[in-house]
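Exam revision sheet. Question 4 asks you to relate a sequence to its structure. Input first:
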Amino acid sequence: MVLRRLAFAVPLLGIVSAVLFAVASRSPFDPLASYLGDRYLTTSSADQARIAAELGMNEPWWKVYGQWLSDLVTGDLGVSRSFSQPVAGVIGERLPWTLLLTGVGLTSAIGAALLLGVCAGARPGGLVDRLITGSATMVQAVPPFVLSLTAVAVFALTLGWLPVAGLTDAGVAPTVGQVVRHLVLPSAVLALSQMPWLLLSVRESVRAAAASDAVLGARARGLPSAVILWRHIVPVALAPFATVIGLRLPELIVGAVIIEEVFSWPGLAGAVVTSARELDFPLLAALTLGTTLVVLVGSLLADIAYTLLDPKVNPDA
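Answer key, structure tokens:
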């Protein structure tokens, strides 16, 4: 399975990168205007043409793509025009903060979804089930940026419990305490935005497992309810739950980009927006392919986890 996925990933990444360059070349944004900023209006047409030629902005997309691909084969990701530094440096500076935010957010969402989903699915139709599923359905319908703005309005502006945005307070060096305090709100919003699908998946898996012949047989033998729930129902429910986590990775990435922008979190989201607006091809291509690769790897890991967790799939279980 791993070899098949790897064989599929290589041509897919090639197609994605080629389409990216082709589509980005049709962008309505003027990369020269973004590059020059306020100087654009005061720069003569001749100087504008010269700068555009020096930066290769007039080259056809396929030629730019070919040069980028040639450099990539040698391990060179290129230089970001937007940030005036190597692409590897831009990613290296911002990736740890994105991994921190998404890691905390996803872990929190998984933990809460498992706990609440099991509580809801164990007694379907009860008061707890109705409250949990109703709340999850409502949250699922709210876009992440609305959740972000609401959280800022309530917990930062009204109550003043947490900072509005940023990695640290203004002018303060990053410390563990500062980072944790500023991480609470964006990671909580990210977890909340991802939790409904995960929670509802656990609930349905628990309900299905509770109606299986194995569980009915365990009840007939007089096993305690807690033993049946945690030893017979929950382990069976984990297999489809692992698949759902893998399928939700694209949504997690999109949500993280939105939340990073709202909370001014110094992750990769700002680089994505800037590279797209300024047609910074090397940086935009690296971020897009990196995102695609994360989704492919997440899907592969989810399938591996499903194989290990489901006895019917894993013959050695």
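Marking note for examiners. The mean pLDDT is 83.
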